[in-house]
Amino acid sequence: PASPDEWAGRDPMKWLYIYGVDGLSVSGGGTIDGVGQEWWARSCKRKKTQVPRH
């Protein structure tokens, strides 16, 4: 989503979450666009209380 506020019910600290996968392969073109400014404003670099847990 364009805004972290639209991430209702999900953990905004995990913008890409993969669990229990073996042998993952990602290929092809394209861009993962995190719509930076809204998300970076909440990053753990700016808010030390939001350090990733994993």
From TrEMBL:
Keywords: Glycosidase, Hydrolase. The keyword Hydrolase applies. SUPFAM superfamilies: Pectin lyase-like. GO terms for molecular function: polygalacturonase activity. It comes from the Eukaryota. One of its GO terms (biological process) is carbohydrate metabolic process. Coiled coil: none annotated. Gene3D superfamilies: Single-stranded right-handed beta-helix, Pectin lyase-like. Belongs to the glycosyl hydrolase 28 family. This is Uncharacterized protein. It comes from Aegilops tauschii subsp. strangulata.
